[in-house]
Specification:
The complex is a heterodimer of chains A (333) and B (95).
Chain A (H helix, E strand, L loop, with lengths): L22 H11 L12 H20 L1 H5 L8 H26 L5 H9 L17 H18 L8 H29 L3 H20 L11 H6 L7 H19 L9 E3 L4 E3 L5 H11 L3 H14 L1 H22 L1
Antiparallel strand pairs in A: 1-2
Chain B lengths: L7 E7 L7 E7 L3 H12 L7 E6 L11 H9 L19
Antiparallel strand pairs in B: 1-2, 1-3
The structure holds fe (ii) ion (FE2) (2 copies).
């Protein structure tokens, strides 16, 4: 999820496109082409390092901000079972953030810097988390669609050329499976329920379907750095191909629920062997990415507040550790 | 241990790029540099690795085996963290 690459604009010089002419670069590319993995102490082109730091940290920020929409429903889950499950899922997402920040740190950037980039608004996170969760059905739709899209995006990343990122993704993918299943289970319960519950499930699908498709990022023709990322083995499958795959597996799941996809152009195309689907509102994605989505401001405020309000805890823990160290030293001396 | 004994180091080996380092054993050495070379000579004689980490054994902080049950207790009753906990009909694919 979460790595829409939208903060890289055409002509952005922050990440140099490498021509790969030097001996070191050619050796590096040779290793990638042989499907060898790159590890932290290996030589790597500056652009490769920067691309990875940006992508992995954007991914980490998304896991962290992604806890907010679901966190909204923990206290109001309809049963103790649903509450325990949702709590466990949100807990997992915090863990995912941790795995990814740690992977980014192997590239020589500090955790404090990364957090600062998020809080200052310099770093981006996935557009999907800027939409509100207004009903319980949204928790079902998020697990089913948002985690479903994340899984689709993350599976190829398990084969990413950078070892620490690939290993983090393997761990994360293993944990994601329950996320999607608990979401679908909620949708299943609602769609087999009363008319009001069915309507609630349909309303959630109506609101989350298009933003979920946007999670895969801009279309291939508008992803200037995709080719470079492909060549470096960071990206394995293009945005449009992943999006198509997601549509193809999700449409039958919606049919099983008896829900209707909010897309009049959606139709099985026998010749292509895929579903055709309607045009995505790229302007909406652009607006959400540039800070004008329905919840951008409250998400950022929640993160900043949490960071500020947690400051005394971080300081107290350090002071406590310091005190214990001094005590042990005195005892030994 | 007399003060003249060489310290103990734990040895971790990455068998090939893409995999994490794995603990393989330990050895005594006068310093970290010697520990690295000795680890290479003892633990990678048959090309078992492409990278070695050595860590002074005294630097490893381990959980207490005697406290194992209490320490790991929080995970025991959370079967809902596993995908098999959820009933998804067989007709629903790719989930
Ligand atoms: Fe996650
Ligand atoms: Fe998830």
């Amino acid at each position: 999820m979460y790595t829409q690459g939208l903060d890289v604009k055409p002509g952005d010089k922050a990440i140099p496109l490498e021509s790969g002419t030097s001996e070191a670069e050619q050796g590096f590319q040779g290793r990638i082409d042989r499907d060898d993995r790159i590890e932290p102490k290996d030589w790597m082109p500056e652009g490769y390092r920067k691309t990875l730091i940006r992508q992995i940290s954007q991914h980490a920020h998304s896991e962290v901000v992604g806890m907010l929409p679901e966190g909204n429903w923990i206290t109001r889950a309809p049963s103790l079972r649903r509450k325990a499950v949702l709590l466990a899922k949100v807990q997992d997402e915090a863990g995912h953030g941790l795995y990814l920040y740690s992977a980014a740190e192997t590239l020589g950037v500090s955790r404090a810097e990364l957090v600062e980039q998020l809080l200052s608004g310099k770093a981006k996170y996935s557009s999907i988390f800027n939409y509100p969760t207004t009903t319980w059905a949204d928790i079902g739709a998020i697990g089913w669609l948002v985690d479903g899209a994340a899984i689709m995006n993350q599976i190829p990343l398990c084969r990413c050329s950078y070892g620490p990122y690939a290993r983090a993704m393997i761990r994360i993918c293993k944990e994601e499976s329950f996320h999607q299943r608990q979401g679908y289970e909620i949708m299943l319960a609602l769609s087999r329920g009363s008319d009001a519950q069915k309507a609630m499930a349909q309303d959630a699908l109506d609101r989350w379907w298009w933003p979920s498709l946007m999670m895969f990022g801009p279309s291939d023709k508008d992803s200037p750095h995709s080719a470079q990322s492909m060549r470096w083995g960071i990206k394995r499958i293009s945005n449009d191909d992943l999006r198509q795959k997601f549509v193809d597996v999700t449409v039958p799941q919606a049919e099983y629920l008896g829900l209707k996809m909010p897309d009049p152009d959606l139709a099985w195309n026998e010749a292509r062997g895929h579903y055709d689907f309607g045009a995505i509102d790229w302007e909406e994605l652009k607006q959400v990415i540039s800070g004008n989505g329905p919840c951008n401001k409250s998400r950022m405020k929640a993160r900043r507040d949490a960071h500020a309000e947690g400051a005394w805890v971080r300081e107290a823990a350090l002071a406590h550790a310091e005190k214990r160290r001094a005590r042990a030293l005195k005892k030994a001396g | 241990m007399s003060s003249r004994d060489w310290p103990l180091f734990e040895v971790f080996i990455r068998s090939r790029n893409g995999l994490s380092h794995k603990h393989v054993g330990s050895l005594h050495a006068a310093d970290a540099g010697m520990a690295l070379e000795n680890a290479r000579d003892v633990y990678t004689r048959r090309a078992e690795g492409v990278s070695i980490w050595v860590v002074p054994s005294t630097q490893i902080v381990a959980s207490d085996p005697g406290e194992k049950d209490a320490f790991f207790e929080p995970t025991a009753d959370k079967i809902y963290r596993h995908p098999t906990f959820y009933d998804i009909p067989d007709d629903v694919k790719n989930i």
